[in-house]
Specification:
With 288 residues, this protein is α/β, with parallel strands linked by helices. 25% of the residues lie in helices and 26% in strands. The strands form 4 sheets. The protein has a 6-stranded mixed sheet, sandwiched between helices. Strands 1-2-3-5-4 form a 5-stranded mixed beta barrel. Strands 6-7 form a two-stranded antiparallel ribbon.
Length: 288
């Protein structure tokens, strides 16, 4: 077989499934990648070639973006799935993930599940102010159409805490996937991990990824965003950044347009407080 291009759709323990020309090839990566501190990930466009009875990934083509957690490349849309209860929303984690997506210039939307169990007005108020699309899922199939429209023709990653209902949602959207689900752990009070690997599933002319859940995120580990760049990752700050000081961090300075917008209710106070918390994490760090 001559060298050909393909898309990594699954990665497990150093073995990769690559979709190319309508076929799926089981591949391993060249050893040179490890030497060069590279690692293929799901979503990578690669070249492969046959080596005896097996197939080898010979090149990782340039990425338009890369998201370390979950480990996936070249995605068009990140769908952050949260639930209004069991487990409740961790707004700090959510805003950290949104900040990373914004930094990488990846479109981001929020899907809210379990709306039949609790009110979700606070989520809507916070993220409508931020200009971030949020969809509320209940038992109506019409709500699912909003998700279909979002992901049509795109490579989309579904991310969220364990137990928020990512796999359940994907099973409702695409019953043929038949993804494994588990109930909330009574002992731990949070979801049990059911998704173990990142995998792309072909749907709607594109792909969706179900990803391993997480309960905490240390934002300092996942990218090289500086504290000076952080405000640009909070899109609602842009229209209110006419501050007295050119280098205003929007944290302690006087005559700050962002802080004034918070006081006037134009920016969510919770989002602003999360910004300050993240800023303080970054303040004494050279790199994330």
């Amino acid at each position: 077989m001559t060298e050909q291009r393909g898309l990594i759709v699954s990665s497990i323990s150093g073995f990769y499934k690559v979709k190319s020309g309508g076929n799926i090839f089981n591949c391993k990566a060249r050893g040179i990648f490890r030497k060069n501190y590279q690692k293929p990930v799901v979503g990578d466009h690669v070249t492969i070639e046959q080596a005896g009875n097996s197939y080898i990934i010979t090149e990782i083509l340039p990425r338009k973006n890369f998201f370390l957690r979950p480990p996936i490349a070249n995605i068009d849309l990140i769908l952050l799935v949260v639930s209004v209860c069991e487990p409740s929303v961790n707004y700090l984690v959510l805003d950290k993930l949104i900040a990373i997506a914004e930094y990488k210039q990846i479109d981001v939307s929020i899907i809210v599940t379990k709306t039949d169990l609790s009110l979700s007005d606070e989520i809507a108020q916070i993220y409508n102010l931020a200009g971030i699309t949020n969809i509320f899922i209940n038992d109506l199939d019409s709500d699912l159409n909003k998700v279909y429209n979002l992901i049509d023709g795109k490579i989309s990653a579904f991310c969220g805490n364990s137990g928020v209902g990512k796999s359940t949602l994907l099973n409702r959207l695409f019953p043929d996937l038949n993804l494994k689900t588990n109930p909330i752990s009574d002992k731990l009070g949070r979801g049990k991990h059911t998704t173990r690997v990142v995998e792309l599933f072909p749907v709607n002319g594109g792909f969706v990824a179900d990803t391993p859940g997480f309960s905490t995120v240390d934002i300092l580990k996942y990218d090289n965003i500086s504290k000076e760049e952080l405000s640009g990752c909070f899109r609602e700050f842009v229209n209110y950044s006419d501050c007295k000081f050119r280098s205003c961090s929007h944290t302690f300075e006087s005559s700050c347009g962002v802080k004034d917008a918070v006081d006037r209710g134009l920016i969510s106070r919770r989002r602003y407080e999360n910004y300050c918390a993240i800023y303080n994490e970054l303040k004494n760090k050279k790199h994330w």
